[in-house]
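Researcher: Go.
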Amino acid sequence: MSQEGSVPDFERVVEDVYRHSLGPLKSEFERLVFLSSLRPSGVSAYQHEGLSMLYGTDSAVQALERCHREVFRGLMSLTLEGQHDDLERCLAETEEDPRSLSKHWQDQQFYRTLVPDTATPLLKKIFMLNCERLLLLVQMKKNPAPSRNHSRTHS
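Model: Structure:
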């Protein structure tokens, strides 16, 4: 274990974040939600008590910033269809109806909080536009239609 003020192996800190915090999550959107939740509203620095105790605050913050950038970049490297599938996986992990949750995300513009501070203005804009469209697609998705075999009558 590292003491505050010492310089731990930075890659080990990043690996710890991926292994213990991000690895169990099933989608890039879910990882972005987790990482952005570590930046309290109005505060740009990440806060993770466990990492800070193990590796020191500065190393924890730097590792979380890097992970946030990498996860964001990974999501943005997906096709729009891939991003849609990833968003649906994320929304399916909650107990809420995906259509209701996507409406809430859209109304509150929650997706804006998912962007790392280091993202370029162009990437931020593309992400926002993609999210607006993806959330609409989720809301427009219909429930699976009942089987037609049960509603047909044979003469």
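Model: Residues 1-7, 144-155 have pLDDT under 50 and may be disordered.
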